[in-house]
Structures are given as structure tokens and as C-alpha cells.
Amino acid sequence: MDTEKALKAAKRKKRILILAPLLLFGFSLYVLILPVVVSGESMMNTLHDGDFAFVSKTGLRHVHRFDIVVINSKKLNEKIVKRVIGLPGETIEYKDDKLYVNGTYTKEDFLDPSWMTYQKTRLKDKLYTHNFKVTLGENQYFCMGDNRLNSVDSRELGPFERKDIIGKGGFILFPITHIKSMNQ
User: Is the pLDDT assigned to residue 19 strictly greater than 60?
Assistant: First the structure.
């Protein structure tokens, strides 16, 4: 009888030793990583509709210009993927497809010129990013999709607050042909 109890206790202990690391790993993933499926074409030609990514929930204290972020949009009642263009307290202006931050021209190297030309031609538009100017308040971030002619972003939704940004960077994992870092 004592041998039978000892065997059962040993089996229980073995199960716990196997399950504990798995549960810890799963909890760590839940706390550190946000799985995201890109929906729509607003981040083309950088990200594509249906791309599956793991996005980091860490490092959100340091959000920089041009970071790709996941935002919890209250107005749309969904999570959206956009790029940070403007930081708190800045004046952002687009004039003739050029970005000016506090009056200084800022190059957007991540934009694909051939994609921009294709989109402007296809949609019969002269500008890829229509002219506008906005000044951000404290704790406000101006975020836009890379596909400027097909993106609902801060131009329509207004600036986002720091607490709305729930993930940044990460890796596209699927489809295999799109595997890459989302860190700019």
C-alpha cells in the first residue's frame, strides 16, 4: 500500500515538474507578447493584409518616431497597426508629400517610392500624403498607416494617448514569404 502511494506521489510530482515550466512559459508569453493579425491595406507596402505577427508588450516606455505600434483604438473599437509619426508636444506638417517636424524636414526612409507612385497613379491623386498641420499635446502621439491613401489613422481618429499604445515592433511570422522584423 505504501509503495502504491509513493508511486502515485512520484507521478504527481513528475506531472507538476513538466507542467510548471510550460505554464510559466505560457504566462510569460501572455505578459510579454501580443499576437496580431494585420487587417487591411493601411500599412502596405510594409505590412500586408493577413500578416501574422508577434509584437512586444515590453519597451513601451520608449516610443520613438517611426516605430510600428499596435494601438487600442476606442473610436474603432479594435486594435490597429500604425506607425508613429509625431511625438508629444511636436508640430507635424505634411506639405507636398514631405514631413516637417517642428518646421524641420524629416525624411521617411521606410516609404517605398515606387509603391507611392503606383498608388498615386492608380487612385489618380497628386499627393501620397495630403497637406495638413497639427500640434500635439502632452502625452499625444500622431500615428499613420504607411499606405497614406488608404489608411484610417490619426488624421481621422485624432492623436492617440500613450496608454492606447499596447505593443510595438516585433516579427512577422506568417506567411513565410513575409517573415521579417517590424522594427522599422
Answer: no
Q: 39, 57, 79, 82: which one is catalytic?
A: 82
Q: What percent of the chain has pLDDT over 70?
A: 84
Quick check: is 42 catalytic? yes
Answer yes or no: is pLDDT of 20 > 80: no
Domains of the chain and CATH, by start: 33-181 (2.10.109.10)
Predicted pLDDT at 14: 63
Q: What mean pLDDT is predicted for residues 129-156? A: 95
Catalytic annotation present for 82: yes
Given the residues 5, 8, 39, 42, select the one marked as catalytic. 42
pLDDT of residue 22: 55
Sign of the alpha-carbon torsion through 49, 55, 57, 60: negative
